[in-house]
Amino acid sequence: MRGLIAIFLAGLIAAGLLVAYLLLSIAPNLPSLDVITDYRPKIPLRIYTADKVLIGEFGEEHRNFIPIKDMPEMMKKSILAIEDTRFYEHSGIDWVGALRAVKSNLTGGFHQGGSTITMQVARNFFLTRDKVIGRKLNEVMLAYKIEAALSKDQILELYMNQIYLGQRSYGFGSAAQVYYGKQLKDLSIAEMAMLAGLPKNPAHHNPAVNPKRAKERQHVVLKRMRELDYITEAQYQKALHEPLRVNNRGQEFETHAEYVAELARQVVYAKFKDDSYNKGISVYTTILKADQDAAYESVRRNVLAYDQRHGYRGPEAFIELPAGDEERDEAIEEALQKRPGSDRLIPAVVLDAGAKSVKVQDPFGQEITISGDGLRLAAPALAAGAKDGFKLRPGAIVRILRGEKNTWSITQVPQVAAAFVSIDAATGAYHALVGGFDYNLQKFNHVTQAWRQPGSSIKPFIYSAALEKGFSPATIINDVPLELTGAETGNESWRPGNDDGVYDGPITMRTALAKSKNVASVRILRNITVGYGHGYLGKFGFELGRQPKNLTLALGTGAVTPLQLAGAYAIFANGGYQIEPYLISRIVDGNGAVISETPPPPALQESARVIDARNAFVTDTMLREVTRSGTGAAAAKLGRPDIAGKTGTTSDAMDGWFSGYGGGIVAVSWMGFDDPKSLGGREFGATVAMPIWMDYMRVALQKRPPLERAVPAGLTQLNGEWLYDEFMGDAAVHSLDMGDAAPELDAPAEKPATN
Question: Which residues are in the Penicillin-binding protein transpeptidase domain (predicted)?
């Protein structure tokens, strides 16, 4: 009896000492609660389209703060069921729950730890995860302090927004987006239960990495929810058997606009530095989702089409396949992890290859058999005589593409580069931008950074200059071979030639542009002088230092970017005004307050005029002719009268371009190799770039009616062609009556248009 009394007294003394230690030693040294009473979560920088579609996110943490009032009730119940059933009943430490957990754990029942949600908040905000007595005592005291300072809902709100849930996601709102690509309120019970199972061990129960373990943990959560009557038996059974489609590729966005997002990020970082990534800044661009989707798909589709026209290059690499199934799977998984995916171009390893079928294994362990048309591209690599480094055999690493009706084909990642940009002709607002085939494979933005020869895309600007020197679309140019001496070129003698080797003799300037005649363009520049033509390009925003001061200027041997070319063609599209392309419409802070805004540009002002309205009008008529009867005649398939543009192909087909406009949209497409080489003897701007432009415009113009242009004052139409009034003198009228007998052009000689 005395022993029991002694033990009891000793227990009281120990408890008293512990309480004294907690109150006198630990409590005074507890950290301030400012970080949670004035909670400011690290919200990443987010980039949106003009129609508020998320296209980019930058920051160390993926986080979407959701107020407790907006948290789905079932999400709260899922968490309480598995983490802290008595959360709304205890005062921070659940002694009853802890004793119950000990008993349950010993008897093999439901396993639940002793940490309450309040204790986890204390740990996440203030303490380490080291399992030492000192830290646990601090955790207990902090839990009481937090409970005294905040309401239960406030504590739960902190927990649900702060907890780490794997894949760089913090909080359940972010996890819903990362794992399912949905908003939290749109998740099913099964999906919420899966997320609720993550806090205990995000790495171990990560559904993107360990789907089997995640499923097991989800079932534990669902069972507990059923035991607590949080869900009905029908809901329980449905959730148990619901297939979960987890995004195992990390953060993704509904629209592919990676190059756009990076441009916007650079602008924000230049202003706000590291605060850009944690203050919840949102950037709204001028990009339109439908336009961006059309541009992205068009670039991908047409680059792949070009690539496949030029044949299969063989497997990307080879690996040895171990004999054992487990060892083989590990070897395949390791090899494919080193091969980044490219949207729908999935890396795979060949397991078996024959003339009529090829079996591969994808990164998810799925075996796929490819046959029929799916082998068309790779057929040469299946031939009996194929060289070893080219032949498809077990261990070869290839790319596969899923087509319609769940069919598969062997493909490859293209080596050729491409770019596309579209802007509003009147305001300069970007509508779409695709800086390359795949941002994840190459960050270089060809729209803004690639300086390439424009080829024949430069010719409209030379023709525009000629209009100011008295030429008209009816002016006759002699399309016959031309040889220039060293004295004329300032270097060696030069004999420019037409791309197709065909010379038509005397033709109108309109026809010369429509057919993209090189010799005629050189004759025009020689007549108006290189100095005048070179200086005239400055009106359109071209960097004159990158343009040659010789006659090759007429053939586009200088350097431009696709964005520069789009801005230049916009001047023809909008009637002669220079506009400044812009991407960002507004930037708002984490509270939604506007901190930077680009107001819509005012109506085109005369102060922005860089060329005569008559010049823009007449050049536009010639550019429309290009798309009706010239090198861009395929554009007629769009069935619109306001389509205008120009193809561009550089020497040896190093670059292919199409620049044009319609419906108030200006767009430029380009294709070429980063390490310049020929696109192929049968490739031109019309075959590689124009299809990209066409596929985009077909979508972008659907809701835009054709634009009619009023005839500016000061123009007179004679025999179907437009002339400046001041050039309608007797000499000009006389020259129009000269007929077809036109000498090599030394001065403007005019005749009626023949087409």
Answer: 419-661
